[in-house]
Fold this protein.
Amino acid sequence: MDANRFDLGGGEPIIILDDVAKSYWRETLEIPVLQGIDLEIPRGSYIALMGPSGSGKTTLLNLIAGIDRPTGGSLEVCGHHLNGLDDDELAAWRNLHVGFIFQNYNLVPVLNAFENVELPLLLTGAGRGERRDRVEEALALVNLTDRMFNYPRQLSGGQEQRVAIARAIVTNPDLLVADEPTGALDAKNAEEVLGLMERLNAELGKTIVMVTHDPKAAHHARHQIHLEKGVLDRTVEVNR
Amino acid sequence: MRWLALIWKSLMRSKRRTILIAGSLVLSVFTVAVLQSLLTTLNAVTNNPNSSNRLVVRHKSGLTQMLPRSYEAYLRQQTEVETVCALQWFGGYYQDPRNFFANFASDETTLFQTFREEFGLAGITEAQMKDYLRDGAGCIVGESLAKKNGWKVGDVVPLTGTIFPINPRLTIRMIFKSPKPSDENVLHFHYKVLEEGVPRMKGLVGSFWVRTHRPEDIPRLIERVDRHYANSAYETLTETENAFNLSFVKMLGNIGAIIQGITAAVVVAILIVTGNTMATAIRERTTEIAVCRAMGFSSTRVLALLLMEGVLLVGVGGLLGVLLANLAAGGVRSSLGAAMPFFADFAILPDTVISCMAGALAIGLLATFIPAYAATRRPITEGLKAVG
Ligand SMILES: Nc1ncnc2c1ncn2[C@@H]1O[C@H](COP(=O)(O)OP(=O)(O)O)[C@@H](O)[C@H]1O
Ligand SMILES: [Mg+2]
């Protein structure tokens, strides 16, 4: 494996992709979406994954986050070989290691901010009191303590995304994956969310992989890598 | 928040839809519970354990034909027989023809022994019994019938005959209680009133109610009595009391088949409606389910949560339906109980409640399982892409 051609800084890798490929089949016709992806991402990185629409960014992110399976190659993420886990083990692994941030926030509309953030904690063994402390802590971190009992429809887009971020970090995962997290936000709210993610990386040491096609958003990450027609570009841009 | 709260909130996502579907469940369970209870009540009439050692002897050609009262002597001679009671349906009414209840001219000397379970003799005083036996124009009435008409012991009840051209004025000598409410909607008076008042009834009676010592004796006795009177001027038809009652229930048509048919139709309809509703409710949540699974909810967990939602929905609907049916049963008892005695026993029995609830739960599970299972089979990535 020649992952070192990407200079993402040193340190112990938290994500190791070895010759990862993903294809879809339409009838008998194979449609390759990702090909020969070799990638090592050190713990504590903040990577922006760029590329034109349809280049396979989401597909790659989903593979790293363990909600999709490759058709070739292997992945090791947060110390686990994902290929070797069955669906239930993979689900448990995600709960423990991965926080998800989506373009459309994807909060549960019938739950208030507190309950939305609490949702992934229901799967952990945490008791009522511990869950409350952690939810409050996460909401304080995204500066929404005063909106704790508001429902998604009572929140602005920016606030909804911040609740979603609180939900992503409440289980204290090592890895955050974000697919176009600012895609639905105006410039001001986008800045706020990006600033928050920067803090999660800098202050809490979260490894973040963010898919975006917005160069301004990508500039908030520490490194940018590019995907072109399912193949990783060799150049890495270093922002800071 | 606990799991149950999560399930409840998911269920209340579309209140209107949830209320509508719960409402149709309430109605369906109500309908089925009432119909099935009607069937149970009718079956109880023809499966009365109290009548296990009683026989009815009547004319072979039908209930309007009479038998000689002298047959009683032959019946008594049979070793299996404990006692015999001559009994004739009088068919009179009190004040208003619509105010219908069962009234009989019967042999007062054997009535209480023949029907001792029905009379619940415990509450009756020796004095009342003597009063009735002594007063040829006396009568006895069940407590619920007395209550309904405001009768007390000593009151005179004028009966207007419909089958027989007499209007006896009867003095209430006893008000009896029965273990079963239906047995209290009855009036009996001395057979002599009919025999002496109606010339064509001289020496005749519609039926003999025979009490045997043991139920096992019954088949043999039936056969012997009918054979004895075969080819006589008055041939007999002897049958168990339950069989006799069944011939009345049968007059209502094949109620059992009708009720089972309606029940099946209701079950199928509600299964389709519930299935469709749950499918829509789950489809609307495709993205949400995918998000939960991404966060680490296993397929089994998602399936269980959705199934519990379905079960909670039909559980609440079913419970309300059964409750409503119980209220309705009380109404039926008080409104129809006097006119049709078996309705006085109308009740939603525990067995019916259990099978209605089990049926509702099965419908909820089945209706939810199909869309819920499909939702957990769907790739997470696809669910995340879905709009909604
Ligand atoms: N389920 C699927 N079946 C077939 N093709 C798919 C499927 N999912 C994604 N693709 C294809 O894979 C390619 C990459 O998709 P995606 O990873 O979503 O791109 P990006 O996120 O970079 O826009 C696209 O051409 C898309 O049409
Ligand atoms: Mg994409």
